[in-house]
Amino acid sequence: MLIGLAAKNAILIVEFAKMEYEKGELSLAESTLKGAELRLRPILMTSFAFILGCVPLAIASGAGAISRQVMGSAVIGGMLAATCIAIFIIPVTFYVVEKISHKGNTGVGHHAGESVAAATESSTVPIAGKEGDSHA
Length: 136
What we know:
Helix content is 74%, strand content 0%. By secondary structure, the protein is mainly α. The protein has one domain (2-120): Up-down Bundle (Multidrug efflux transporter AcrB transmembrane fold), CATH 1.20.1640.
């Protein structure tokens, strides 16, 4: 469940940032910050609810308490780490990967699809068998 929550948070941050960037109104850095800002509150609320739900495990007493305490502290620590990674590392990673992947596409447009479309529209290669073919 911990891995699922962490993955969901990362996917949603990237999805929101990419959606803002593809609109073309914001730069890559601005869209990354906007995506992270839009997802900050839901990530924190979900994480804190999950962590507070595991507190009874971490402070368990009685028979078998040690195993519950170990599990509770591991889940709480893992969720705290996953939340920090989602808030700080995922947006930075998205920015770096997008910057590297669009480095060769400067000048035509900031989306890879635009550069391919522009290249195919401007090409004028004659096709064999069409008009102007000399050996017909």
